Amino acid sequence: MLLIFPPVAKPCEPPAGIALLAGVLRGHGQSCRVLDANLEGLLFLLNTPLTPTDTWSRRACRGLGENLAALSDPQFYANPDRYRRAVADVGRVLDLIGKSHALGLSLANYQEQRLSPQRSADLLQAATEYENNIFHPYFATRLPELLAVQKPKMVGISLNYLSQALTSFALIGFLKKHYPSLPVVLGGGLVTSWLSNPSFGNPFQGLVDHLIGGPGGEPLLALLGVSADNEHHGPQYDGLPLPDYLAPGSILPYAASSGCYWNKCLFCPEKAEGNPYQQISPDLVLKDLSRLIDQHQPRLLHFLDNAVSPALMRALSTQSPGVDWYGFARVIPELADLDFCRRLRASGCLMLKLGLESGDQTVLDAMDKGIDLELVARVLKNLAEAGIATYVYLLFGTPTESIVEARKTLTFVRRHQEEITFLNLAVFNMPICGPEAPGLAVQDFYEGDLSLYTDFAHPRGWNRKEIRRFLDQEFKRDPAVAAILRRDPPLFTSNHAAFFC
């Protein structure tokens, strides 16, 4: 089987989804090849000849090779200004290449003017007009040689982000035109979200042979006529170009669970989609990590869990994986123990991403976050004292919030500015399948039958335009907030943030 991760997503670490599927398939004796068409495709495009006329573009094109090499050099990250310029210059080259095809293109995004990834008709059109896709020359060069050698029984495509959707369907169109008898299986996070919507009627019949939602290992085995053995099979990154990613050393992503162990927060997509929580035991996790570290000698581990479980955190605090690591965590009582935080740091924990959402207790309670701000304050203090960076996520515009509560969030950030290393600011989107949506006046948010979110009439009259005005004119301009935001790595954000800790 050939497993493909399509363009476009941040090319800083190998795709965890196809690595996990490779582990399951190979663990059952099935031949499997993995292809990161995202990294390969972007590097392919960056070889496009350009004749820029403005000073910035000429500098960016002239220094492209040097900038790509610098993003893989650990010493380069000691100079944030040079890093920012390198990322901007690489992005400038891709922007120029994208404009030649009338699309917006970056290291993290792909946007066409004519077609939307949120309309099934547009995705079908992208498949029909696959030769118009900017990645078609790469597909036409790479896939025939690969398929001739591998001769797979089927091709699996891991579609996780909206930025990958149009290119994924162009890839499917290419395959169906040139290899009509080769079955195509489509899975991944975005497909899982589509399938969780009761109104989804599978408009891709006749083009995509199989759609898979959720963990894909067992369904793929079934398609291959193989019975699952119920044994644990960890991810395998063999066959992926680990030295070529844009990071100062290999980052290995690892998911110790799927779903969320809390699973109570209102308006959470995980809850709205009904994704069950499944956890790998800490003992098996540590065995997986030991194997992966021995094989690949990574510089950093990236835990992909919605929240690293307390049990795994306790295991890591007593048995270090041997390399630095970071990931999402809930604000839990264990982190209020300074000694525990110090043990976590000694285990290699460089950074924890914390979904705080709000600095107002009434908003947190209404969302059923299960945390109180006094605990958050103690945790932030302890993590800072232990030397663990924090990447704090804030969400503005939930139904119980107004500008009054949002200003309390600003006050909270000011109070803890020395303990918050990085900030992520987002405006709330209502999941279209969420159980809370029917209780609010909703309307179309994104035009398209595949939209994952819906707009709503805010009960307190705080609309998106006013929220964005508050963020741009008040929140971000506050000196304490501005100082934190300046630390955020452009484009790569949390994926590179640990390297600046």
Can you tell me about this structure?
This protein is of the alpha/beta class. It folds into 2 domains: 2-48 and 100-223, 3-Layer(aba) Sandwich (Rossmann fold), CATH 3.40.50; 249-500, tm_1862 like domain (pyruvate-formate lyase- activating enzyme). 41% of the residues lie in helices and 15% in strands. It has helices spanning 16-27, 37-45, 55-62, 64-70, 80-99, 120-128, 136-150, 162-178, 189-196, 217-223, 269-272, 282-296, 310-318, 338-346, 361-367, 373-386, 403-415, 464-475, 479-485, 494-497, and strands at 2-5, 33-36, 103-105, 110-112, 155-158, 184-187, 210-211, 251-254, 257-258, 278-279, 300-303, 324-329, 349-357, 389-396, 422-427, 430-431, 442-443, 453-456. A 6-stranded parallel β-sheet has the order 8-11-12-13-14-15. Strand 5, helix 8 (162-178) and strand 6 (184-187) form a beta-alpha-beta unit. Helix 12 (282-296) packs across helix 13 (310-318). The longest helix is centred in the N-terminal third of the chain and has 20 residues, at 80-99. The radius of gyration is 23 Å and the shape is globular. The two termini are 40 Å apart. The model has no long low-confidence stretch (mean pLDDT 95).
Which keywords apply here?
501 residues; alpha/beta; Rossmann fold; pyruvate-formate lyase- activating enzyme; 2 domains; six-stranded parallel β-sheet; five-stranded parallel β-sheet; 18 strands; 41% helix; 15% strand
